[in-house]
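Exercise: predict the fold of this chain.
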Amino acid sequence: MAPSSLQPPAIVAVLGGGNMGSGIAQACAQAGFTVRVRDVDAAAIARGRGLIEKMLQGAIDRKKLSPAKRDEVLGRITFSTDLSEAVEGAALVIEAVFEEESVKRALFEELAPLVSGSTLVATNTSSLSVTALAKGFPQPGRFAGLHFFFPAAVNKLVEIIGGESSDPATLSELERFCYLLHKIPITTADRAGFCVNRYFVPYLNESVRIAEENVVSLATIEEVGRELFGAMLGPFELMNVTGIPIAFHAESSLCRAFGPAYAPAQLLETQFRSGQPWPWKASTVEPEKKAAVRRRLLGLTIGIATRLVEEGVATAEATDRGATVGLRRTWGPFAQLSTVGVAEGLELVEEHAQRWPGNFPVSAELKERAKRGERRWPMSYVKVERKGPVAWVLLDRPEVLNSLNSDLLDQLDAAFRSLEPDRTLRVVVLAGSSPVFAAGADIAEMEKKTLAEGIEFGFQGQRVAEHIERFPTPVIALVEGYALGGGLELALAADFMVAAEGAQLGLPEVTVGIHPGMGGATRLTRLIGRAKTKHLAYTGLPVSAEEAYRLGFVLEVYPAARAREEVQALADTIASRAPLGVRWVKQVIDRGLDASLASALHLEAESAGHTFGTHDRTEGMRAFLERRKPKFEGK
């Protein structure tokens, strides 16, 4: 894996210092990047600088940031009106100007001759076609969309949009960049609304349509919106805060792409033209009418979400992540679908589709799952990525810091079972999809468990950990961010654990009324002894990666920005060795721990002797004598 140039303190140029641009610049500077902000004149620059200073001061007031850290962040940001000066030597240029295609195109025409062939260029569009904006750009493969969500310095969601010509390597680099910013990226296709706005903006519009029918009060719709999606704000207050014009223009854009079912409500246009906020507080809630509103909004949301997944715009997991992270809702569309049940979800969608004959297609997959009698929409929480002979098994619930629930544990076990028969596999790296390993068990699920279910959950975790421990090829656990509770217990089952600087590791179960049950206390005791394990388990206090290294249960600590490259290099080194020799010596070491010294020595000698009957031994020794690299085949 080649080292990336897009890591701190590389230069990131942000073009536009308004509400979005200033937030993006702040996020980049806080992550350690050197940031140059370019805007049109001194007044715009002063405003952008003021926005950043205000945000940072707010963080200081909330005790989230120290004055020294604020000064450090501000010291990484410079401002300029000179485009050439701003982008010189930049590893990444992020355009964040007014959401108008002609304005953005003019900027990209001016930018094109100024950037080097290695520079990545991203547009922070929320609605425009990335493919269209990339046309005419000299290197469209290095051009993509990065849609930050407001406020960009705080909101963790970023949509990564690949245009028709975007190189997959560009999208991968941008994903890594987002993680360095401590963001949670989701990848979407280049279609109108991308992922989140595809279902979110129509929800706002549908709320106005319901109000337009004069059958229920604005206050009722507002309350249903908050309750149904677990949101802080309902649709009308949200539009009042973010801007009614934005909702109108976004819905108009969706209508041009998808037809009349997405047409802006007449009342939305009227309110937009009036320049007045929604007066929802002037009405009262009508409890008896809430159920009908709930059906309308849920049918629309599930209908659009299932269609966009079917179209390949985004995955179901990304769609829900967009809702819970970007919109800060408690539940995403697919979680809600699984709550009401697939059959009832289909009924709600078809009910909504009847309002728009031929213009609101119902997902064929939703129909098929209902036909099969499925209750829940399946969600994937574990990913497997192959890099030659090395498999990365990635825990993938970044929106909840990869907290472990029963589904994730089942899927993790299935991932290792699927890899086990693969004779080309040499090493497994167990990590998080984002720079977090796992912050422990899912307390929301755990809190509901009975005594019997709690016992079974512990045994389920132990079964998965045992499968990792007994996996035939070496397993390396890479801890970034957090490995707490069950997360640390899984990592301890690997052959060894490495960590990134800044990681926190611990067994905090006693702070929530329980204690380790997946094998963490037992395995950690064998690594660092009774007293040190008891100290960690009794206090529940985490330790740093460096302290874990000193205690002896972390093998190596790597710089955070290079941790994955370092682990890949380590895995590649192991993968280059004789596969049978590595597999068998793993068995010798593990089995020898539970045997007497005499038995362990006998096992080691016998196993080493058997390697003399392998093709790899013949090839390895011949290569040594011929002074060439061996070509091991695992035979």
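Check your answer against the key: The longest strand covers residues 143-148.
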